Amino acid sequence: RDPAVGDQARAGLSQRDVTPEALMDIAEKTVPGFGEMMRMKTLKYTERAFLTRSLAVICGKTLVIAFPGSRRGAAQCFEAVVPALRHGVETLAGWDGECGEHPHIK
């Protein structure tokens, strides 16, 4: 199994945007910080950033991230979460210690 999966999702407000609900159906845990960071960081590109329902969940040892459906929005959101993505995946997979014990934390 892949330790992380990203998807350009339908995570807006229209009736056909059901990816968040589908992910919640398979989720064992939610990781709210991913969606929060995506919305916060992309506000510099659009004042509508808060309308996305992008999120991340854990299913087994896999982190599943729903990015916005547009190519530009997905790239901007990926840029927002990539600084912590590797550490999150490594921690989830058991390859790294807890965040507070990481050497880059002062």
Spell out the key features of this protein.
alpha+beta; 3 helices; 40% helix
In short:
By secondary structure, the chain is of the alpha+beta class. It has helices spanning 19-26, 32-42, 71-93, and strands at 4-8, 29-30, 56-59, 62-67. Helix 2 (32-42) packs antiparallel against helix 3 (71-93).
Give the SSE layout.
Elements (H helix, E strand, L loop, with lengths): L3 E5 L10 H8 L2 E2 L1 H11 L13 E4 L2 E6 L3 H23 L13
Parallel strand pairs: 1-4
Antiparallel strand pairs: 2-3, 3-4
Helix pairs in contact: 2-3
Number of DSSP strands? 4
Low-confidence segments, ≥5 residues, pLDDT <50? none
> What count of helical segments does DSSP give?
3
- Sheet/helix structural class: alpha+beta
Order of helices and strands: EHEHEEH
Please tell me about this protein's structure:
It is a single chain. This protein has a four-stranded mixed sheet, with helices on both faces. The model has no long low-confidence stretch (mean pLDDT about 85). The protein is globular. The longest helix has 23 residues, at about 70-95. A hairpin with a 2-residue loop joins β3 (about 55-60) and β4. The protein has about 110 residues and is an alpha+beta fold. It contains three helices and four strands, in the order βαβαββα. α2 (about 30-40) runs antiparallel to α3.
